[in-house]
Amino acid sequence: MANHNKIRDYLQALAKEKGWDTWSEKRIVTEGGTWVPDLIIRRNDLSVILDVAVTYETSIETLRRVKKAKEQKYRPLADYVCKWLGTPKVQTLGFVVGARGKWLPETDDCLEILGYGKVRRQQIGKLFSKLALTGPKIDPHPTLLVHDGPEPLLWLNLSMVWSSMGSRPQYVHGPEHTVGLP
Predict the structure, then answer these.
(1) Contact 178/145 with Cβ under 8 angstroms?
(2) Within 10 A of 182 (CB to CB), how many other CB atoms are there?
(3) Is position 32 within any domain?
(4) At residue 142, what are phi and psi to the nearest 5 degrees?
(5) How much is the pLDDT for 180?
C-alpha cells in the first residue's frame, strides 16, 4: 500500500508540474455507489480520472488486464466529473506498475497526456519501476530539484529520489541543488 500511495503522490506531483489541477482520493457519492479514485486531474477542457495499481506481474498481459479493469471501473463517473469540473471531455486511465518493477508501455499514455515527451516518459517510467521495487523511505529533508539535462524534471521529496536511486545523491554547490537521474 505504501508503494501505491507513493506512486500516486509522484503522479500527482508530475501533473501539478505540468499545470494540472489535482484531487487525490476524492470521495464521490452517486446513485451507483461511493467511489474513491486515486486521482482526478483537470486542465483546460480535459479531465482525467486516474487509478493506480501496483500488481504482481506474471506477464505483460497481466498488467494490461489490470489497466483495462481500472479504466472500466471508473467509466461510470465520467458524466459526474464532466459536470462537476465543467469539462467537455473526460478520460479514465489505469496507471499500472508491476510489483517487480515491470513497466507497461501503455502506461506512457498517461504521462503523454500530462505533457511529457518521450525521453522524459522513459526516465519517469524508470523512476516508477524503481519505486515499485524499493518502496518509500522516510527522510526529514524537504525537496530537491531534479535535473536530467538543462531542463528541470520536477521537484521531488528527497526520500523519493533516494528510494529510486538506491543511495543518497551528491549535492552540487550553487544556486540549485541538482542530481541526475540514473
Answers:
(1) yes
(2) 12
(3) yes
(4) -75, -95
(5) 40
48 is a domain residue: yes
Which residue in 81, 107, 77 sits closest to 10, CA to CA?
107
Does residue 125 lie in a domain region? Answer: no
Residues facing 46 on adjacent strands: 43, 89
Say which residue the cell 461510470 belongs to.
76
Exposed/middle/buried for residue 58 (C-beta within 10 Å: 0-12, 13-18, 19+)? exposed
Grid coordinates of 30: 452517486
- Tell me the pTM: 0.72
**Identity of the residue numbered 56:** Y
The three cell numbers of residue 120 are 522524459
Burial environment of residue 69 by CB neighbours within 10 A (0 to 12, 13 to 18, 19 or more): middle
Residue 98 lies in a domain: yes
57 or 79, greater pLDDT: 79
Could you give the CA distance from residue 115 to residue 65 in angstroms, rounded to a whole number? 25
Could you report the per-residue pLDDT of 64-97, keeping only the tens digit for each?
Answer: 999 999 999 999 999 999 999 999 999 999 999 8
**Intra-chain end-to-end CA distance of the chain, in Å:** 25
pLDDT score of 40: 96
